């Protein structure tokens, strides 16, 4: 999945596959890459436009979707 570099203390890059509803995030700490499944496009738009990507992730995404480490 193609990811975009983000200005964030927590997140290095992120991308979204709208066809499959998959969010992918590369974290700065350790460089791990995680995917979040059944992620709605409206939630992607909110995350993409959030002023603080890290805060939004912690409050709205973490623990809310099925997830897997992919890298």
Topology, element by element:
Blueprint: E1 4-5, E2 11-17, E3 22-27, E4 33-36, H1 41-49, H2 53-61, E5 67-69
Antiparallel strand pairs: 1-2, 2-3, 3-4, 4-5
Task: State the separation between the terminal residues, measured CA to CA.
Answer: 12 Å
The assigned structural class equals: alpha+beta
**Uncertain residue ranges:** none
Q: Biggest sheet, strands in spatial order?
A: 1-2-3-4-5
Q: What is the averaged pLDDT score?
A: 97
Question: What Rg do the Cα atoms give?
Answer: 11 Å
Give the percentage of residues in beta strands: 25-35%
Helix content: 25-40%
Q: What characterizes the major β-sheet? A: 5 strands, antiparallel
Account of the 3D structure:
The chain has 71 residues and is of the alpha+beta class. It has one domain. The protein contains two helices and five strands. It has helices at residues 41-49, 53-61, and strands spanning 4-5, 11-17, 22-27, 33-36, 67-69. A five-stranded antiparallel β-sheet has the order 1-2-3-4-5, covered by helices on one side. A hairpin with a 5-residue loop joins strand 3 (22-27) and strand 4. The model has no long low-confidence stretch (mean pLDDT 97).
What attributes characterize this protein structure?
about 30% strand, alpha+beta, about 70 residues, globular, about 25% helix
Brief synopsis:
The protein has helices at 41-49, 53-61; strands at 4-5, 11-17, 22-27, 33-36, 67-69. With 71 residues, the chain is of the alpha+beta class.
